[in-house]
Amino acid sequence: MNRVYVVGIGPGAGKQMTEEAREVLNACDTIIGYTVYVDLVKEQFPEKEFLTTPMKQEVKRCKMAFEEAMKGKKVAMICSGDAGVYGMAGLMYEVGVEFPKAELEIVPGITAAIGGAAVLGAPLIHDFAVISLSDLLTPWEKIEKRVRAAAMADFVICLYNPSSRKRHDYLEKACNMMLEYKAEDTICGIVRQIGRDGQESRILTLKELKDTEVDMFTTVFIGNEQTQEMDGHMVTPRGYRDV
Amino acid sequence: MNRVYVVGIGPGAGKQMTEEAREVLNACDTIIGYTVYVDLVKEQFPEKEFLTTPMKQEVKRCKMAFEEAMKGKKVAMICSGDAGVYGMAGLMYEVGVEFPKAELEIVPGITAAIGGAAVLGAPLIHDFAVISLSDLLTPWEKIEKRVRAAAMADFVICLYNPSSRKRHDYLEKACNMMLEYKAEDTICGIVRQIGRDGQESRILTLKELKDTEVDMFTTVFIGNEQTQEMDGHMVTPRGYRDV
Questions:
Q1: Is the CB of A10 less than 8 angstroms away from the CB of B17?
Q2: B14-33, pLDDT tens digit by residue?
Q3: Which of A107, A111, A194, B178 might form a disulfide with A7, Cβ 3.0–4.6 angstroms?
Q4: Which residue of chain B comes nearest to A18, CA vs CA?
C-alpha cells in the first residue's frame, strides 16, 4: 500500500501546526497543494519537491498526489487550517477510488473557527454551527436554510468565506436573516489573516456587522444569546458559574 | 501584566499538540488542569509544578491559575482538545474579571470534532453543527431545539458528551429526533479515545446508531444527505466534482 497524507498545516503554517503535521512533512518526498499554501511552507521544508495547481484545479491536484505516490514517493497534500473542514480530505477520498492501491491518512490541523476563536477570546464555548457563505459549490437556498436554522436555535455561528469580489453583499444578506432571530446587539467578532502577518480582529454588534465590509481572508463569529464582550474579548459563557 | 495561558493540548496530548502549545508549556512554571488531563502531560514536562482540581471545581481551578500568576509564576491552564470548545477559556475570562492585572492568552488545540473526523475520514467537509448532549449546564429543551434545527437544515452534526451513567438514553433520544428529518440510512461514525491508547472507530447508519451504546469518551458524527461510506471511511463530498 502506498500511503498518501492529507495534512492540515494550521491557519498560518507557523507554530499552530501540530507536531504530527511537521513530522509527516519532514518525512515526505513531495508536498502538493494550492499555490498559496505551498508558498507558506516552502521555506520551512527547503529540501522537498513541491507541486502546485491553481484554484479550480482541485481534482487535478488530487490525481497528481496519487500519481506521485504510485511512483513510490512519500506524498503529502497540504491544506490551510484543517484538511477536513472545507478542505481537500473529502475530494482525496473521492479521487482515491481510482487508486485502490493507495491508502489515505488524514492529519488534522487548527481550522479557522478554532484559531480565530482563540484570537477573539472564547466565542465557541457552547454549541456552534460552521457555515460557508460561498455558493460556488452549494446552492444559496441551502446556505440560507442553514443560516436561518442556526440562528433560530441560538447556535453560536462561525462563517467561512463570508465575502468575495462577486459576493460582496453575502454577509449583509446573512446578517439580515440572522436578525430575524437574533438581537441587534448580539456580540460578534471578525478575524482577518488568522495566524499570519497582519492578523487583526474586531468585536462588534450584529447590527454593525451587517454594514461591515469583510474580505475572503476573514472569518466571522456571531454570538448566541449569552455571548458577552468582556474586556475587549468575545466570550460565550457555558454556565459553570450557575452550577 | 501577568499573562496566563489557556492551552488546548489536543485529543491525546501526544503528537497532535501544536508546536505553540508545547512551547508555552515548556516555558511555564506551573501547569494547572483537571486531574485526568494533568496525568496526560505530566511525564512530558517532568520539571513543572502541577496543580489539579477534580470535576465540578472549575471555578476554583481558574482562581488557582490567576492566584499563582499573581505570585509571579508563569502559569498555563490546560484543557483536553481545544480550550475554546466546551473548554475552560470562557470561564477563565469570567473569573479573570476579578484579576484585572492578569491578561489571558488562548492557545488553540485540535478539538474532538476535528481529531475524530480525521480518524473517520472526512465527515466535516461541509457545513456542520457541534452540539453537546450534556444537560448538566444546559436545559434539555435547548439541546433538543438545536438537534432538531441542525437535522432539519441538513447539517453534518457532531455530538460531544453523547452519554454518561445518568444519561444513558440521550443519544437514542437525539437519534429519534434526527430521524424525523434525516433518513435511516444516513451515514454516521463514532470515535472513542481519539488520539489515545485504545482509539477505536466505527461507521454505521443512523438507524444502527440509535441502538448503539456509547460512553463519555466517544464523539459521534451524523452525516448530511450527501455523506457516503467510501472504502470504510465516512466522507462528505463538497461538490468539486460537479464544478
A1: no
A2: 899 999 999 999 999 999 99
A3: A107
A4: B18
- CA gap A180, B203 in Å, rounded: 38
Interface residue A108 vs chain B (CB under 8 A): yes
Smallest CA-to-CA distance from B237 within A87, A101, A129 is with A87
* Reported pTM: 0.96
- A120 → chain B, closest CA residue: B106
A63-89: per-residue pLDDT in tens?
999 999 999 999 999 999 999 999 999
Q: Of A235, A10, A185, nearest to A113 (Cα)?
A: A10
Quote the ipTM score: 0.96
Q: Domain extents for chain A? A: 1-109, 111-233
Local mean pLDDT, 10-residue blocks, chain B (243 residues): 93 91 97 92 94 89 96 96 96 96 97 98 98 92 97 98 86 97 98 94 98 94 97 88 47
3-state per-residue secondary structure call for chain A: CEEEEEEECECCCCCCCEHHHHHHHHHCCEEEEEHHHHHHHHHHCCCCEEEEECCCCHHHHHHHHHHHHHCCCCEEEEECECCCCCCCHHHHHHHHCCCCCEEEEEECCCCHHHHHHHHHEECCCCCEEEEECCCCCCCHHHHHHHHHHHHHCCCEEEEECCCCCCCCCHHHHHHHHHCCCCCCCCEEEEEECCCCCCCEEEEEEHHHHHCCCCCCCEEEEECCCCCEEECCEEECCCCHHHC
Contact A150, A129 (CB under 8 A): yes
CB–CB contact A106 B114 (8 Å): no
Is B148 close to A150, i.e. CB distance below 8 A? no
- Three-state DSSP class for B213? coil
CB-based contact, B20 to chain A, within 8 Å: yes
Q: What is the CATH number of domain A1-109?
A: 3.40.1010.10
Q: Which CATH class is domain B111-233?
A: alpha beta
CA distance B24 to A88: 30
Q: Please tell me the distance from the alpha carbon of residue A110 to that of residue A178, in angstroms, as a whole number.
A: 27
